[in-house]
Amino acid sequence: MAVGVFDSGLGGLTVLDAVSKRLPDVPFVYLGDNKHAPYGVRDADDVYTLTCAATERLWDAGCDLVILACNTASAAALRRMQESWVPRDKRVLGVFVPLIEALTERQWGDNSPPREVAVQHVALFATPATVRSRAFQRELSFRAIGVDVEAQACGGLVDAIEEGDMILAEALVRSHVDALKRKMPTPQAAILGCTHYPLMQEVFQDALGPEVAVYSQANLVAESLADYLGRHPDMIGTGDASMFLTTGDPKRVSDHATHFLRRRIQFDAA
After folding, report:
1. What is the tens place of the pLDDT at every residue in 15-31?
2. For position 172, what pLDDT does the model report?
3. Per-residue pLDDT at 1
4. Which pLDDT tens digit goes with each residue over 120-146?
5. pLDDT in tens, 39-98
6. For the packed helices 218-231 and 13-22, what is the interaxial angle rounded to 10 degrees?
7. Domains along the chain with CATH numbers
8. In 3D, which of 2, 3, 1, 13 has the Cα closest to residue 267?
9. Residues 205 and 170 sit within 8 Å (Cβ to Cβ)
10. Cβ atoms within 10 Å, residue 202
11. Do 38 and 158 meet the contact criterion of CB atoms below 8 Å apart?
12. 20 to 30 A Cα–Cα from 78, which one of 131, 139, 187, 194?
């Protein structure tokens, strides 16, 4: 009855932590493609190929449902996977949907025409690949009109977080926020469009100011997954054990993950 959670590196652990707390009886298999991280600097075809390979590995582990806890993979690969690759008895879901549901205050199944929403000026902080894809803007436009989205590619931030260099990470956050504010001086909301970024949420909030609503993904994804499994219990796969898998060096990744979540995490080779 396992559910798969995939990320290019350690950022998806923020999502895993939230979904594990929300659904304590569901085993989760986490796969980090640390060998090829970060995805944010790769082209769309490369991200697609790597994401498909990782998804197949999670299917082999008994996970019929896989969450792409990676915004770059969700932006660059998910739609193509769903349209032409995922078999009928499997599901692959991304992390954009719960975020857009929260921002627009309408459920994904609501297929009524796009309408005006309360938030009109949105700052999007994401990896360069996610920004290039314009996937967030595309999905948002299906549900809302009149929303001005200003995207800021946060180069270097994922690497700093993965390496545990929080001094550099904080400096980068403040630099990227400054760059965003030169383009959009008064955003109403900010989207942290990478699953690494919740670790820096307080810094983002401080740099943006208390009047800006900062949307992070982990808890939103957890609630959305709980709702989805309640409606589709058949999508809980045959796997019965939680595990952590990596394409990188298991010891090194385990050490970084332990620092990342502040509890002992043991990865095995994928």
Report:
1. 999 999 999 999 999 99
2. 98
3. 67
4. 999 999 999 999 999 999 889 888 999
5. 988 999 999 999 999 999 999 999 999 999 999 999 999 999 999 999 999 999 999 888
6. 50
7. 3-96+218-269 (3.40.50.1860), 98-215 (3.40.50.1860)
8. 13
9. no
10. 12
11. yes
12. 187
Q: Count CB-CB contacts under 10 A for residue 56.
A: 13
Q: Is 172 exposed, middle or buried (0-12, 13-18, 19+ CB in 10 A)?
A: buried
pLDDT digits (tens, 9 = 90+) for 214-270: 998 898 999 999 989 998 888 887 878 899 999 999 999 999 999 888 889 999 999
Q: Which of 193, 242, 245, 195 is nearest to 35 (CA)?
A: 245
Alpha helices (H) in 61-156, listed in sequence order: 71-76, 78-84, 96-104, 128-133, 135-141
Tell me the pLDDT band of 109, cut-offs 50, 70 and 90. low
Residue 62: CB atoms within 10 A of its CB come to 18
Tell me which of 111 and 164 has the higher pLDDT. Answer: 164
Is 194 annotated in the active site? yes
Give CA–CA dist 72/80, Å, rounded.
Answer: 13
Active-site residue, selected from the candidate residues 52, 63, 70, 154: 70
Catalytic residue among 52, 63, 154, 194: 194
Q: Which residues participate in the annotated binding site for substrate?
A: 7-8, 39-40, 71-72, 195-196
